[in-house]
């Protein structure tokens, strides 16, 4: 076949597959052929079979470009080892030395190179969010200059560092137990596919995706269901024909697979049916134990609350100044390790830091994001911080905001019917 034809690679790939048909220990990609064996003796047998097959079809190999009988090998941009695979060091170094893009086209190129190794990056959607904002509404070869912010520059450097610390991913083994951990936050979904190996769960691949504006308005249930649906769809080639368990930290999803679908919304029904084609073994896992998937989907963590910043904001808060004169509250200053002082309410048995108006929205997001709490639990925790719902509305959070954040899927109600048969024995105790 002549050089330059667009279908030449596909034609040659079909040809090399036909040449090596039946040799399940061979992994060919165009003119690169990888032969995997468990021992030196087996490897010698495998190589003889491959060479005989190539000779039968009149193909020759370049000895100077060939590598034989090694435990580690560079293949298609990856370092392949007995334990798993990871990005090549020289490829990673090239990205580490990548200069900050000056225009949209250069940034698109950088993200394309980075996402070649996306399956190794735990929280790619989160860490690239600000960079992708620059690409919104841009054309393919947009030469517009980028106005870099401090946060965007930090995220650019973090993306490079994350690749330098990329996780070693295990090779899929059909004989080992398989599990899929999924989670969703307000803006992203995340998942990790793992297999149980050497008495621990080892990652096979990561997945994360930023939700669009419409999806971010979904209820907690719908976002969690969407995350599970997209994760199963993404890992379809791993999951087909396998028995596996799906873990989620959203308990209502477990019961959804055991209920009739006639009351579910059409979108929910489609997603539930699709997931059920692969597995109905859905188990609940506490949020604190679903660390990896939760990290992939969550932009911030509770530990990111900075009490020093709260202390600084307290000095500018007008409401605090007026509250100091109210006798029902017992406000006292408590020293922080940094030397600053934090005003706290000690009128109850629990010391509660005073949350200034500028921090109340952030605190709400942290509390609700702990494990997707309902409205009663969220308000109870808010009260433990001294935050009444009325105060939250006063700082810019309207009632409609709470309705969207705290709403859950509608409860399925069964029609009333008469009881026709009663076959149980009852003991009446008076």
Automatic annotation (TrEMBL):
PROSITE patterns: RT_POL (PS50878). It comes from the Eukaryota. Gene3D superfamilies: 3.30.70.270. Transmembrane segments: none annotated. Keywords: Endonuclease, Hydrolase, Multifunctional enzyme, Nuclease, Nucleotidyltransferase, RNA-directed DNA polymerase, Transferase. It holds the Pfam family RT_RNaseH_2. GO terms for molecular function: endonuclease activity; RNA-directed DNA polymerase activity. Its EC number is 2.7.7.49. The keyword Hydrolase applies. InterPro entries: DNA/RNA_pol_sf (IPR043502), Retrovirus_Pol_polyprotein (IPR050951), Rev_trsase/Diguanyl_cyclase (IPR043128), RT_dom (IPR000477), RT_RNaseH_2 (IPR041577). This is RNA-directed DNA polymerase. CDD domains: RNase_HI_RT_Ty3, RT_LTR. It comes from Araneus ventricosus (Orbweaver spider).
């Amino acid at each position: 076949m002549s050089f330059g034809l667009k279908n030449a690679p596909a034609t040659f790939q079909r040809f090399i597959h036909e040449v090596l048909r039946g040799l399940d220990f061979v992994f060919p990609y165009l003119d690169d052929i990888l032969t995997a064996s468990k021992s030196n003796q087996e490897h010698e047998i495998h190589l003889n079979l491959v060479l005989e097959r190539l000779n039968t079809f009149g193909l020759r190999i370049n000895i100077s470009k060939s590598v034989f009988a090694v435990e580690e090998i560079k293949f298609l941009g990856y370092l392949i080892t007995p334990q798993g695979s990871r990005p090549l060091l020289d490829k990673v170094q090239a990205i580490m030395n990548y200069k900050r893009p000056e225009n949209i086209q250069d940034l698109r190129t950088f993200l394309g190179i980075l996402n070649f190794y996306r399956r190794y990056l735990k929280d790619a959607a989160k860490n690239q969010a600000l960079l992708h904002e620059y690409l919104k509404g841009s054309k393919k070869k947009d030469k517009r200059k980028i106005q870099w912010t401090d946060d965007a520059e930090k995220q650019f450097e973090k993306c490079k560092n994350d690749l330098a610390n990329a996780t070693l991913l295990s090779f899929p083994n059909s004989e080992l137990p398989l599990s899929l951990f999924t989670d969703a936050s307000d803006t992203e979904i995340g998942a990790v596919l793992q297999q149980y190996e050497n008495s621990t769960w080892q990652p096979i691949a990561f997945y994360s995706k930023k939700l669009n504006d419409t999806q971010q308005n979904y209820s907690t249930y719908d976002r969690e269901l969407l995350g599970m649906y997209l994760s199963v769809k993404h890992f379809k080639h791993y999951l087909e024909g396998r028995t596996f368990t799906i873990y989620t930290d959203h308990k209502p999803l477990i019961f959804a697979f055991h209920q009739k679908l006639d009351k579910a919304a059409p979108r929910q029904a489609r997603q539930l049916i699709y997931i059920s084609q692969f597995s109905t073994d859905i188990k609940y896992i506490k949020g604190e134990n679903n660390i990896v998937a939760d990290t992939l989907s969550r932009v911030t963590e509770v530990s990111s609350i900075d009490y020093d910043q709260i202390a600084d904001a307290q000095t500018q808060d007008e409401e605090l100044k007026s509250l100091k004169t109210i006798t029902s509250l017992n406000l006292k200053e408590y020293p922080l390790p940094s030397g600053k002082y934090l005003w706290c309410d000690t009128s109850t048995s629990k010391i509660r830091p005073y949350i200034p108006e500028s921090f109340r929205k952030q605190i709400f997001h942290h509390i609700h994001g702990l494990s997707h709490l309902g409205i009663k639990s969220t308000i109870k925790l808010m009260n433990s911080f001294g935050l009444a719902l009325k105060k939250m509305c006063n700082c810019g959070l309207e009632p409609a905001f709470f309705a969207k954040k705290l709403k859950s899927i509608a409860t399925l109600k069964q029609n009333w019917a008469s009881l026709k048969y009663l076959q149980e024995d009852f003991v009446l105790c008076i």
